[in-house]
Amino acid sequence: MCENLKILKQGAEAKLYICEYLGRPTLIKERFKKNYRHPDLDTSITKERIKNEARSIVRCKSAGVRTPALYLVDFDRRRIYMEHFQHSITVKDFIINLTKSNSNNKEFTNSLDIYAVKIGKTVRKLHDNNIIHGDLTTSNMLLVEKDPTSSVNDSKWLNHDNVDLVMIDFGLSYIDSSAEDKGVDLYVLERALISTHNDYPDLFSKIFDAYKSSSKSNIKEIVNKYEDVRARGRKRTMVG
């Protein structure tokens, strides 16, 4: 079924493989068994998480949010087969790589601002369609070339017209209209940016501004819930 299966990485919940499936570059996400769980419980949890991930990916398409195309869901093998982007880089790596050599470069700063707006608008689309990602980090966002070039340097990602933002890893996602859950989603993103990209302390505020400005509806409740979650998080940090 899948040719030349190669392991890409292994996380706490799943193994990622790359291969060629039906003539297309494919990423396989395989949720392995957790031996500390009762087998029936493990099977039930795994099946539900696979269903949630597949459902979120399909829902993203109708919401206008680009994600890997879904090819196959195999519950027996605990696998999801999806599109593999060969010409891509995570937003995390894009920021880290260019920070090393272009931290004072105006073009880089402008690029970061443009991508911050893209991220804010994309997260807003998710929430407008009641998709809670559950793990919003720059590691789970890809910059993907629309028309791949032969360039091997990072400057190609500054060509915004040729780059799409793609959301990945919906393993913790679910569908919910709760303003609280959307506020938590935003808080998770803020904490991830603080811990990973503390060289750019205003990055989240730019994302958040784009999030709020791109809304077609009143998001006051979501913003209030986010502020509540943020306040609780700060209190826990202070108390320990």
Give an overview in words.
This protein is 45% helix and 22% strand. The longest helix has 25 residues, at 39-63. It has 240 residues and is an alpha+beta fold. It is built from six helices and ten strands, in the order βββαβββααββββααα. The chain has helices spanning 39-63, 91-102, 106-128, 179-196, 203-213, 220-239; strands at 2-10, 14-21, 24-31, 70-74, 79-83, 88-90, 131-132, 141-145, 163-167, 174-175. The mean pLDDT is 90. The N and C termini lie far apart (51 Å). It has a five-stranded antiparallel sheet with strand order 1-2-3-5-4, with helices on one face.
Shape category: globular
Percent helix, as a range, is 40-55%
Major sheet: size, sense and barrel closure?
Answer: 5 strands, antiparallel
| Termini gap | 51 Å
As a whole number of angstroms, the C-alpha radius of gyration is: 19 Å
The largest beta-sheet arranges its strands as 1-2-3-5-4
Order of helices and strands: EEEHEEEHHEEEEHHH
Unreliable residue runs: none
Mean pLDDT: 90
Class based on secondary structure composition and strand pairing? alpha+beta
How many E-type strands? 10
| Count of alpha and pi helical runs | 6
Tell me the fraction of residues in β-strands, as a range.
15-25%
